[in-house]
Design a protein that fits this description.
heterodimer; A: 76 residues; mainly beta; 5-stranded mixed sheet; 5 strands; B: 353 residues; Rossmann fold; 4-stranded antiparallel sheet; 12 helices; disordered C terminus
Chain lengths: 76, 353
């Protein structure tokens, strides 16, 4: 089965869920937002959401950097 | 005496580029010179005059003396606003300083005036805020707010180009104000030497038209997103990490998605390291910060397509930009019809491990 992952085609050997795909890619599910065919998938549905042939999957990492750590409103 | 404002369309070949700047500089009645939007192989220039009749006659006479042919046949008055008061008064220096904007189609004198009247808040005078503030300042943004509670550290200078080596130890907002004043004295820099927080954010952001977030941690990002939503302000969010950057324009008050539509809540504390821990390519801060400034100028001018429904992803190593759809979440905790967040709440997330 072929899907489009982050703009590039990717072959999946068997049926897969979002959770399984993330596991295969060694990406932690709480570090990313996942969009399938222009819909954001709720994190709770990662394990149940089956990927279909031709799905366009975008995995977007949380990126928070910009200034310097001392801007933090909640210094540890 | 009533002032006149009208446009004259000249064939471009009659006014070579060096003369454009010369006449713009010499005759203050010329408030805008721009390429006319006509499909012809030889370009035409729309020159906007604004001043008293005699001043304008004198400047047209001056153009003739410079060899610019302004025969009645070539004069094509495309707009004549006798009753309209002059609104575009630029000094000689300003006409020269902003000449590359003023002659630019879709900017012109009117656009430059909009830039001059704009008030933009830059959150964080660091990696992203530095290049953004420099370009916005150079562009002539009338009021630039800088908020940062930190002082310049030697380790900042690899990417935070608003600060210089002699200013190590100086508050970043003060250091930024100095450089911006030297770059463009037209810009009023309002400084806030404090960390942005739940207690001050709603006093500050309503004073601005546009907010640029260049903060470094998720707590601040969610706070800024929520505050901009409550204050109905457009937010241009940029972030960087190692060799990757992200950019989005956020305006849920115009029906577009907010930051929480994509990331409903901050990631667990300590999961995502910050730049201090993980490192960041200095140039990457410039790339993303300058793109934030680009989107800010577009918002001010109402030009082009914004990133209101997209997230731009940039990979500096692969040298790839990817623009992905960023749909509105009908169950967004903040901007949906049934929000669960109805007041500004501080999110106690720390990026530090």
């Amino acid at each position: 089965m072929d899907i489009h992952l982050n703009g590039e085609s990717r072959y999946l050997e068997k049926e897969s869920t979002i959770a399984a795909l993330l596991q295969e890619l060694k990406i932690r599910s709480d570090q990313v937002a996942v969009e399938v065919n222009l819909h954001i998938v709720d994190k709770q549905d990662f394990a149940s959401r089956q990927l279909q042939e031709g799905d366009r999957v975008e995995i977007m990492s949380f990126i928070g950097g910009g200034a310097e750590s001392s801007l933090s409103v909640t210094e540890a | 005496m009533a002032k006149l404002r009208f446009h004259i369309r000249f064939p471009e070949e009659k006014i070579p580029e060096p003369i454009i700047y010369q006449i713009g500089h010499e005759y203050q009645v010329i408030t805008s010179i721009r390429r006319a939007d006509v499909r012809e192989t030889t370009g035409w220039l729309d020159v906007e005059f604004c001043g008293e009749t005699e001043e304008i006659e004198r400047s047209i006479e001056g153009l003739r003396e410079k060899g610019v042919s302004v025969d009645p046949i070539e004069l094509n008055v495309v707009e004549h606003e006798q009753t309209h008061p002059c609104t575009m008064e630029f000094s000689e220096e300003q006409i020269q300083r902003y000449s590359r904007h003023i002659i630019l189609p879709d900017v012109g004198g009117k656009g430059q005036k909009k830039i001059q009247q704009a008030k933009v808040l830059v959150i964080g005078a660091g990696g992203l805020g530095s290049p953004a503030a420099l370009y916005l300042g150079a562009a002539g943004v009338g009021t630039l707010g800088l908020i940062d509670g930190d002082v310049v550290d030697l380790s900042n200078l690899q990417r935070q180009v608003l600060h210089t080596t002699p200013n190590v130890g100086v508050p970043k907002v003060e250091s930024g104000q100095q450089l911006l004043a030297a770059l463009n004295p037209d810009v009023h820099v309002q400084t806030y030497q404090e960390h942005i927080s739940e207690s001050n954010i709603l006093d500050i952001i309503p004073e601005y038209d546009l907010i640029l977030d260049g903060s470094d941690n998720f707590g601040t990002r969610f706070l800024v997103n929520d505050a901009c939503f409550f204050a109905k302000r457009t937010l241009i969010s940029g972030s960087i990490f190692r060799f990757e950057g992200q950019l989005a324009t956020i305006k849920p008050h115009e029906g577009f998605p907010c930051y929480r539509c994509l990331y409903p809540e901050p990631p667990p504390a300590g999961l995502v390291p910050n730049c201090q821990e993980a490192g960041v390519l200095g140039v990457l801060a410039g790339t993303i910060g300058v793109l934030q400034a680009n989107e800010a100028i577009k918002e001010i001018l109402g030009l082009g397509e914004s990133l209101a429904q997209h997230l731009l992803l940039y990979d500096a190593l692969e040298m790839k930009f990817r623009r992905v759809g960023r749909p509105k979440d009908p169950r967004c905790p903040l901007c949906s019809a049934q929000p669960t967040i109805t007041t500004l709440e501080e999110h106690h997330v720390s990026c530090s491990l």
